[in-house]
Structure prediction request, 242 residues.
Amino acid sequence: MLDSLKLICFLFIGHSNMCGGCAPTIADTIPHDRIYLWGDEKGFYHGTDNHLFGATSGSPVLPFLKRMAILYPDYQFAGLKGAYSSAMVYQMVPGNEKHDLFFKRLSFARRQATIGGVVAMYGYVEGRNQDLAESFPRDFMRLLKEIRDSVGDPALPCILGRYETNNLRDPELERYRTFEKIIDEKIESLQHEKNIVLAPIRTMPTAYYCEDHHYNGDGYTIFAHDAAALYQINGFDRWFHE
Prediction:
């Protein structure tokens, strides 16, 4: 049961990196008394369900929420999932199962919590197709606007992961180089949109990857801590100042 502390819920959307895919080391599996996860049958609950965010426990969700709990000791934090393996942002449209389930979850969650913002990782799959790469900004902003409209906050903050440039070291992906350049530039263009800040994934050392674009557990934790710092540095914690 939620206690009297204000609950701030973050929305985690994207592809397998947001799920914690391929992490050979565990990012975090220790519950925290001020952190909740969303389960469709449980609602908000304490725990570290490895299957909630993907097949492994490498997800950046818990490290992000725990860092927020350190930064804001008088609040509770929650995570709600909208991430899937090989997900593409253009799929998140009404009528798509992934879209409809996410917004169903969101409609329940926002009755119990203040929605603090979005943490997103998209673009890897779009970087394999020129049309999807070109349309990425339009598709992402459409989704973000729908989320913002749903929670009644046109300035809802978003931390968006940059394109994983370390995958360029995979020689089998040579045929995608042109498309990768396009998606990289398209994601970079979004930093000029209102309340979107890009997390510096491209600076992640090679040692924190488990293969061409997935991180290991330590890599997911680095991303999570960067995202939490960017959220605070950019003054996105408006609920803290209310």
User: Anything to note?
Assistant: Confidence is low (pLDDT under 50) at residues 51-56. The radius of gyration is 17 Å. The helical segments are 16-19, 61-71, 97-109, 130-151, 177-189, 217-233. Residues 27 and 217 are 4 Å apart (CA to CA).
